[in-house]
Design brief:
This protein has 8 helices and 5 strands, in the order H-H-E-H-E-H-E-H-E-H-E-H-H. The protein is an alpha/beta fold and about 190 residues long. Strands 2-1-3-4-5 form a 5-stranded parallel beta sheet, with helices on both faces. Helix 5 links the parallel strand 3 and strand 4.
Length: about 190
């Protein structure tokens, strides 16, 4: 296997130390970087992708998965409204290739729903190079941001981090946790 990063090792230790006493129980689940990544993805709210183009849906969902998010994918305004009413989303990725009426109706539905819950869900447009001239109009119509298609991991990560409140650790808090984890390891070994 490939070597683990220091963050992955840290996550494994903190997961093990935060679990109830795990004596030498052979039935206890194994903690790996994959189980930790899966747990992180399940703890995050999904992202709603609204895109009528199958290849773009697949690419965007794959990029989100690589970033640790799950995705719900719909193709039109009716499906988007139904999905949005049934689940909570950390962000909505809305293709600018949808007809203008569908985009505006979808954004209005999201904003109305957010107003009722006193929250704000970022709506991020996905635009091809042909659609770049729409950027000013889209921002005025209620979108929070726009990124280019095909979606790249770097652009999507930066945009999602900008618009969502991630629970990523800062360097100083990460070091504080490492120090407390070391103390907990020493305490566990002393017992």
């Amino acid at each position: 296997t490939m070597p683990m990063t220091p963050t992955e090792v840290f996550d494994c230790f903190t997961t093990a130390l935060s679990s109830p006493a795990r004596s030498l129980n052979p039935e206890a689940p194994l903690i790996t970087r994959y189980t930790i990544a899966e747990a992180k993805a399940q703890s995050r709210s999904p992202v709603l992708i609204i895109d009528p183009i199958y290849e773009d849906q697949k690419n965007t969902a794959r990029v989100l998965e690589a970033l640790g998010y799950s995705a719900d994918v719909v193709t039109n305004e009716q499906e988007a409204s139904a999905a949005y009413d049934q689940a909570s989303y950390v962000a909505v990725l809305l293709a600018c290739s949808l007809p203008e009426y569908e985009r505006l109706t979808t954004i209005a539905h999201i904003r109305q729903h957010d107003h009722q819950l006193n929250t704000h869900t970022p709506v991020i447009g996905l635009a091809t190079s042909h659609e770049q001239e729409r950027i000013d109009t889209e921002h005025q119509s209620g979108m929070d941001d726009i990124i280019a298609k095909p979606v790249t991991a770097a652009a999507l990560k930066k945009t999602l981090e900008n618009w969502t409140k991630t629970e990523e650790l800062t360097v100083s808090s990460h070091q504080d946790l490492e120090t407390s984890a070391v103390c907990n390891i020493e305490t566990a070994l002393a017992q």
